[in-house]
Amino acid sequence: MLGQKGRNGPLEVASPFEATVTIEEESATKQEAQRTDRPGLAMFTDGFRMEHGATGYTVAWKKGTTWNGHKTHMGWGQEIYDTECAVIASALRVAATRDHALGTVTIFMDAQAAIWRMTSDDPDPGQKYAIMARKHIAALRAKEPGVCVEIRWCPSHQGVEGNEIADEWSKQAADEPDEHGVDRLDLKDPNGITRRRRFPLPRSLVNFKRDFSERKYTEVRD
Fold first, then answer.
1. In this structure, which of 23, 72, 177, 205 has its CB flanked by the most CB atoms within 10 Å?
2. Band of the pLDDT at 9, cuts 50, 70, 90?
3. Greatest Cα-to-Cα distance within the chain, rounded to the nearest angstrom
């Protein structure tokens, strides 16, 4: 993490995006995703938004013959794009919090727009997740300087086991908030201690734009 001195103390600045993005032709990508001899930690990710607006995402990885993962509910007021950006940051957090050397971290995601969003911290939708991704990469590299981090595009619904698992679990995460983790706001008190608010995430900018467009369309149609 880089730092600068601001008027009211240290000003946090996101570190560079020190990861490789790989988007190949579909057949080559599918072959890579189906490899069983991939070194290090390989994770499959997906986000989902139900018709009634509930959202969630999943990070899944295989240990031996068993699939493990994190299912996270994001509540309402988010869009599929938000879940896809959030899940990449979440996968990087999983890697950064491992207590042993990984060597290689590979994250598979079927949404190219979310993958490319991680490479820029410009103030657009998804920015907070791009910044979070950089923080997790920096934390991972602080523990393991030589680690290789790669985010790869993976085609959806092509019979790739990990991708199918992530797809199914993300639907569960969106549909069953009482049985899975829930993303909520974290705030810091005057002493700098993080306190968790028991309130859902605020509406995302993408969700607000969607709602505004739908309202304008209804007005014009009527």
1. 72
2. very low
3. 60
User: What is the residue whose two structure tokens read 């001899």?
Assistant: 37
The whole-angstrom separation of Cα 147 and Cα 136 is 13
Q: What is the pTM of this model?
A: 0.80
H helix runs in 53-194, sequence order = 80-96, 112-117, 127-143, 161-175
CA separation (Å) from 101 to 43, 46, 77, 105, 145?
A: 16, 25, 37, 10, 10
The structural domains of the chain, ordered by start, are 20-216 (3.30.420.10)
169-203 residue pLDDT tens: 999 999 876 555 666 555 555 666 655 555 566 66
Virtual CA dihedral for 212, 217, 218, 222, nearest 10 degrees? 140
Q: For residue 16, what are the CA distances in angstroms to 79, 131, 134?
A: 26, 9, 7
- How many residues are given for the chain? 222
3-state class of 36 per DSSP? coil
Q: Tens of pLDDT along 45-59?
A: 999 999 989 999 999
